[in-house]
Amino acid sequence: MYWMIVLLSLSLLALIGTGIYLEIHPPAKQPHIQRKWKSVVAVNLLVFVGAQVGLLVLGMQDAMAETAASAAGGEISVGLGLSLIGIGIPTAMATVGAGIAVGPVGAASLAVISEKPELFGRTLIYLGLAEGIAIYGLVVTILMMGKIG
Asked: Are the beta carbons of 15 and 44 closer than 8 angstroms?
């Protein structure tokens, strides 16, 4: 199982490194170079997703095998662990959504402020509304945590 975690970590680091490299040095406009980079990213992404699925399958088998032993020691059961993961998903998705929203709103705000500085307060409100999405996800998570207690 540890080799799968190492493979997943190396694949994630390779994806991040490839993204940074392509951001600093964009590929040339020749089709064969673009095809090469597409295949590199596709293979790396395929390894990453394959390692995630393998880790999920192997990890689920190990987690299901340990339920009887962990129940006697007062440990967290599989059901409680899965419910905690499910409770964290709204915060994760809301944070991703807020990040996607804040990017264009922030860029547009900077563009407007550079032309009309008196609109700073209005753009700040729009930016706060976009960031509020993450707070809504956090509130939902806190409300769900109260239900399993």
From this structure: yes
CB atoms within 10 A of CB 28: 10
| Rounded Cα gap, residues 16 and 18, in angstroms | 5
Q: In 3D, which of 7, 2, 101, 118 has the Cα closest to residue 52?
A: 7
Could you state, in chain order, the average pLDDT of each consecutive group of 10 residues for the chain (149 residues)? Answer: 76 83 82 83 84 77 59 70 87 91 92 93 91 90 85
Q: Which CATH superfamily is domain 76-149 in?
A: F1F0 ATP synthase subunit C (1.20.20.10)
Rg (CA), the chain: 22
Contact yes or no for 105/127 (Cβ under 8 A) = yes
Which tokens belong to 35?
């095809």
pTM of the complete model: 0.49
